[in-house]
Amino acid sequence: MTNLTTRMLQGALGSNANNSEALARAMLESIGIEVGGAKRHDIQVLDSSFFARVLRDGALGFGESYVDGDWESSALDETLTRLARADLNTFMGNRWHAIPRTLKARLRKMQSKARYVGGHHCEIRNGLFASMLDEKMIYSCADWRDSEDLDAAQEAKLDLVCRKIGLREGMSVLDLGCGWGSFAKYAAERYGARVKGVTVSKQQVELARYRCAGLPVEILLQDDRTVVGTYDAVISLGSLEYVGTKNYRRHVDLAESCVAPDGIALVHAIGGSRSWKTSAPWNHKYMFPKAALPTVTQLGRAIEGNFVLEDVHNVGPDYDRTLIAWDENVRRAWPDLKAGYGDRFYRMWRYYLCMRAAGFRTRQLQLYELVLTRKGAPRTRVRGAGGISPDSDNGHAPHGFRTTRGARQDTTWRAPAWEKVIR
């Protein structure tokens, strides 16, 4: 059923509750979701207003009705996967009339501020994230290639980033949007790096400073537009997608202005397959009001003239498993968290996690890691993922280089080929 057909039928039948229910049921059944069905991905409608709401407000109404408790699913991620395969916003309608025009006008202003902790996440206490995330509190995609649990997969992810930027003892690193200091702590402990991290969240700063105490790490409550200095490496793990389309270039310009002439930058960002100036209505309203996911084309424009693109790696499929692991942790911890958040928040948070998982599962969402060097930097200084120059004659790591588990090696150690690291 096309979006046009849906709108025509909605206009003819939308005023009648019985017709609204019949149309909504038909829409869902056409993509394999039965109202009252016995399959895990089928939904159980608890409030009959759901049908008219979905027809009126489309994808936004579908998500809001779940948050309000109007319907249930035994496998929320599977339900949303079926909607994602049908292209949720096209199939149901991307109903921007459900969001006042004044809010869209505010979006343009908010993008100019370019704060990097997305939307309402600033208001969420550390306790939820401590229960949801791994022991290092990494709020981005894990690397599941050789790992079976979340803690190991997130450590593998941090180590992959360290190897991609060729991290060595004594190197200085700027971490834009540092979260709870997970990368900073790991890089300082395992590689002997000196790290400065910036974030706009007071809660993150307090916990990050506590966790990184005694290490060569500086955590600052600071808008990154005011960051100055020169660093051997600049990383942005999950920040660019939350600055808004008008600020992609500015974010990359910032990295370029702070990286040493022979330095390296790594940008890790969720991306989309199509260009949108804003996020989907539900995500915009409840999670990330400033977010817009960049495409490869937009990323290319952002780095053009500033950097040489040494490598781009799409690790999106691993995010599905990461998000499901987070969802399982939230459900497991909810009895202890419930008093501080409430049932409506719980449903909103689960919908967010499962909606994102569905996006990655259906490959509508991507996760790009870009390795960048300053334009004109000698290629012999470009560090491969093993921490050595791709042009190295003998493949030996620099003196004091630390391998994936942090064990110091002598100069006879041979780094793996780039292709093996990012397979």
Overview of this protein structure:
The structure is a single chain. This protein is of the alpha/beta class and 423 residues long. The chain is built from 16 helices and 9 strands. The protein has helices at residues 3-13, 17-29, 49-67, 76-85, 88-92, 101-113, 126-132, 150-164, 182-191, 202-211, 248-258, 281-286, 296-303, 317-341, 343-361, 418-421, and strands spanning 43-45, 71-73, 172-176, 194-199, 217-221, 231-237, 259-272, 307-314, 365-374. Strands 5-4-3-6-7-9-8 form a 7-stranded mixed sheet. The protein has a two-stranded antiparallel sheet with strand order 1-2.
Write a short abstract of this structure:
The protein has 423 residues and is an alpha/beta fold. The protein contains 16 helices and 9 strands.
Order of helices and strands: HHEHEHHHHHEHEHEEHEHHEHHEH
Instruction: Give unreliable regions as ranges.
Output: 95-119, 380-423
Dominant shape: globular
Overall radius of gyration: 23 Å
The total of beta strands comes to 9
Query: Counting H and I runs of at least 4 residues, what is the number of helices?
Result: 16
Distance between the termini: 39 Å
Which structural category fits the helices and strands? alpha/beta
What is the overall pLDDT average? 81
What helical percentage do the residues reach? Answer: 40-55%
**Order of strands across the main sheet:** 5-4-3-6-7-9-8
